[in-house]
Amino acid sequence: MRPTAGTTASALVVAMAAVAGLAPGTSALQAAPTTATKTPSGYVPPVPPPISPATNLPNELYSWKEGQQIRYQRAGPKDGRPVLLVHGLFVNSDHWRKTLSGLAEEGFNAYAIDLWGYGYSSKPPLDSPEARAVNGEQRFENGSGESVKRGVALGTAGGKRTRIRDVELGHPIGSPYNFYTWSDLLRDFSRDVIRGGETSQRSPFGLPLFGGGAKDQQQQQPISLVSNSIGTISALQAVIDEPDLFNGVCVVTPNFRELHSAEIPFPGVSMPVVRAIQATLREKGQGLFDALATPGTVKEILKEPYKVRSAIDDTLVDVLLDPLLLEGASKVVFDTLSYSAGPLPEQQLDEIGAMEEGGAGGKKKTVWVTYGREDPWTPPARVDALASKACVEKVVPLDGIGHCPHDEAPELVNPFILDFLERVRE
C-alpha cells in the first residue's frame, strides 16, 4: 500500500494498529519507583508498575542523559550472551513478552527496552531543554554527519526495479524523537547497562536486581540486536554508529517507511499536501487519538496487522494501550507521523556492507530477516530483494503470518532468532 495525500489522514489508524541526568559512560540502575521527579521543564516521567503484567518481570529503569528515564526488562542468566530487543512503532518492551521468555529459557541474557518517547520511558515536550539536549540530530549541526544522502538505491514493491533518490535525514520539524537519538540510546544502554556490570541492588519494593558477578564476561562480548518493524531503523543505525558494540541484527519484519519523502510518489506535488495534513494532526488530532485509544477500538484495529487472531488477547491490548494514555504519548505519536525523513533500511544495509568492505567495524555484521507473507504493510518482493545486500545472509518468509511474527508465531520466530544467535557466535 502506497499512501497518497488523501490517505495520510488515516495514517494515525494505520500507525496505532501497530499499537492496538547521567553523561555517557556512566549509568544508574533501579527498579520502578513509587513516585516520579519533575524535570526542570515541569515534565513528570511515568511511573511503571513494579512488575510487568505482560512478562511478570521487574520493570527496571536506566537514567540516561539529562536524567531521562528509560524503562527496560531483563530475563535469563546474567552471564548469558547478551541480546537487546528493539520494539516497533508506538509499542514497548512488553511486545517482546514471548521472545524474552524464549531467550531466557535458552540461557541468553535478554534485554528489552522502551525507546525514549515510548512505553514507560520519558517523553518530555519536544521543545523542552532536556529533549533538545539529547537530540541525536545534533550530529548534523556539528559537522559529524551529513543531513542528505545523495543517490540512494531504494527498492520497489515489485522487488525487481531500483529507484535512485536523495534521502533527507533530518526530522522535518526538528524533533528530538528520531532514529539518531534512538541509536544514541541503544549504544549508551549497551555500554552502560549491558556491559556495565552494575553491582547488586534492591529496588524500593524490596525486589532484588541482577547482580554484578558477570562483569568481566559481559564487558567484552558483542551484543546481538533483534528488531521489529520500524525499530529496525534504530538498530541498524546503532550498528553504523558504533559497530564494535554489536555483532549483527536479526530483523523481524523490516519497515520501508512509506510516508518518507523519498517513498511518496511525485514528492514535489504531494509532500506540501502531506505536510499540511501532518500539521493539522499535530494541532488538532487529539480528538481522533482519544477516539481510537480505547480497548475495543484497538482490538479491532489490531486485526489488520495481526493475521493470527488468537494472538490478539486482552493482555496485548492492555500493555500496548496503557502507555499510550500517559502524559506526552499522543504528542510523540503525532510527531512520529510527521517524520517523513530519516534513514531508510536499504540505505543503511548498503552502508553496513560498504563499511565492512572498507575494513571498518571489525568483524562482519550479520543481518538475518524474517517476515510474515500476510503482512498488509510490507511488500514481500521488496523484503525478498534485501537478500542481495552484502550483509544480509538470509531472508525467510513465514506463511499465514502478519506484521508481528514474534508475537503471532513465537514457535516459528524464536527458533529463527536462536539460529541467528548461533550464527553470530561463530
Question: What is the strand tally?
Answer: 11
What's the CATH first level? Alpha Beta
Please mark out the parts with pLDDT under 50 across 5 or more consecutive residues, or reply none: 1-31, 198-214
- Look at the structure and name the CATH superfamily: Alpha/Beta hydrolase fold, catalytic domain
Question: What do these coordinates show?
Answer:
The structure is a single chain. The chain has 426 residues and is α/β, with parallel strands linked by helices. The protein has a single domain, classed as Rossmann fold (3-Layer(aba) Sandwich). The protein is built from 17 helices and 11 strands. Helix 3 (97-105) links the parallel strand 4 (82-86) and strand 5 (109-113). Helix 6 (179-194) packs across helix 8 (231-241). It is globular. The two termini are 39 Å apart.
Task: Please provide a brief summary of the model.
Residues 83-414 form the AB hydrolase-1 domain. The protein has 426 residues and is of the alpha/beta class.
